[in-house]
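Q: How do we represent a protein-ligand complex in a form that can be generated token by token?
A: Start from the inputs.
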Amino acid sequence: MKILVCITHVPDTTSKIQFTDNNTKFDKNGVQFIIGPYDDYALARAVELKEQLGASLTVLNVGEAETEPTLRKALAIGADDAIRVNAFPKDSLFVANQIAAIAKEHNYDLILMGRESIDFNGGMVHGMVGELLNMPSISPVMKLDIEGDTVKMAREIEGGKEYLEAKLPLIAGCQEPIAEWKIPNMRGIMSARTKPLNVVEPKDDTTATSVVEFKLPPAKGAVKLVDKDNVEELVRLLKNDAKVL
Amino acid sequence: MSILVYIEHADGAVKKSSLEAVSYAKALSDKLGGGDVIAVALGAIAEGELSKAGTAGASKVLHVNDDKLTAGIIQAHAEAVAQVYTQVGANTLVLAKSSLGDAVAARLAVKLNAGLVSNVVDLPDTSSGYQVKRSIYTGKAFAETTVSTDHKILAVKKNAVDLKTDGADAPVEAVNLSISDASFATNITSTDKATGEILLPEADIVVSGGRGMKGPENWGMIEGLAKELGAATGCSKPVSDIGWRPHHEHVGQTGVKVAPTLYVAVGISGAIQHLAGVNSSKYIVVINKDPEAPFFKAADYGIVGDAFEVLPKLTEAIKAIK
Ligand SMILES: Cc1cc2nc3c(=O)[nH]c(=O)nc-3n(C[C@H](O)[C@H](O)[C@H](O)COP(=O)(O)OP(=O)(O)OC[C@H]3O[C@@H](n4cnc5c(N)ncnc54)[C@H](O)[C@@H]3O)c2cc1C
Ligand SMILES: Nc1ncnc2c1ncn2[C@@H]1O[C@H](COP(=O)(O)O)[C@@H](O)[C@H]1O
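Then emit the structure tokens for the protein with flavin-adenine dinucleotide bound:
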């Protein structure tokens, strides 16, 4: 059994988002980068499945050299090897084409991704790869178990969940509580240094979209505080000023 | 050229977010100088309900009334919508962002060779080329994005345009499609879903509780206020992690992103990851006993006080104005 986990290299969730170069580039100054939180769930579940089923586990990122520490972290958490497609991730289609090309070459049985990246939040790459490989793509998946060649999953839907089954191979976009985030231990960190991290060049240069300018939302005004013994005043403000009641 | 809108339904009614997508498509069509806005619905639902898409701006509704499509099987829905899209000769597909919509749109982007923009917050600027504004970094920024393909798919975020209600009922036409068995390879074995509840991602008003609510036994107060407001209930991540509330109520960076007109946060500190899920709300009310709680910085209105004192009073005060 071969498992692939696709991970993003994204700003820590507490980062202040700013742009440079006339609002055409993300400002990395002072920003800490992490494995995307949803990708981290996917990776954690993959490590459990690897142990349970004796599978091999590869992690993949489409990104420039700066993403390698993030891939090393994934190796420390438990992946066996890593692949970096050496290219700036231009848009979701571009990324999906790279992932599909690698998957065609290596024939993974299970491809896990995050439900969405936290930079561009598209939640699109898994579906695109699914279509490119003609495989089912299920997202957001909050539970995933493998019995033989059957995958049993729970998928979150608005107001609840649905349970589904499908055969391998398939792609899942993961979210909690599929597994608990894993923190690398000392042994993992040591062994990650020598695990293979293969760099390959992109196979396809197609894109469909491009960003011309980034913008920040307008700053929020100051809060209007209402005395706790005068809740009627809050109701009046909501009704007459905000007009939401 | 026509615009196709993929509309979803739940509990026998067209989802409000889908009607918003119809209004978005109508505004887009008007902006581009006219053309049909055709809605397509899959699976069993009453025709009378579907014709309502007309009030939101559709000129016609196509209904693929195949029971096998009632459940949201992603591949089957993508195949069905692709067939209809080609049949009607559309050049743009519009849909509401949702857990099913996202999954279907991504497959369609590849099938139709269409540039896909998700989290769209405004109508495209077509003065030179085709430029769409979308929300990124979980609502912390926007990206003006150009689309280079002839075919386009726009997944619109809540409140991208105003929901129209002044159109006439639209005629509903039945369409028969033949969907390949392969597209039904995933089998939904059961669903576990609250019915009759206001869906959190769709709600106009949301009341959320955090760890400051102390325990699940106190949620009656959150529900009481929500009921009075006609609101959905939400919570912070630790609250769903400990199991006080179900996971689908967890709001934030790793949970549901909401965009209501009013978000009421009770006993939630306002960690940046929680704010990421609520920053598209029009108005935010914060009730917290700690005047230094970071949530007050993101709020429009606030009360510094004990939730257990304030909530019952607030619920009464709302009841009083009705
Ligand atoms: C990668 C990552 C992703 C995350 N994603 C999310 C997410 O999606 N959503 C999310 O919510 N969190 C998320 N978190 C967690 C987040 O950082 C916070 O820990 C969490 O939001 C805190 O929840 P809380 O405000 O309910 O609890 P606390 O931080 O414990 O705050 C409780 C608040 O209640 C107030 N309070 C206490 N008693 C009362 C009372 N009687 N009356 C009124 N107020 C009272 C306190 O003053 C305090 O402000 C994430 C964290 C990480 C690292
Ligand atoms: N540059 C990338 N490299 C590897 N995987 C990616 C990349 N971008 C997105 N993905 C995967 O696709 C998922 C969905 O991303 P998105 O469609 O951008 O929201 C992410 O959670 C990752 O698992």
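The mean pLDDT of chain B is 95. Chain B touches chain A through 94 residues (CB under 8 Å).
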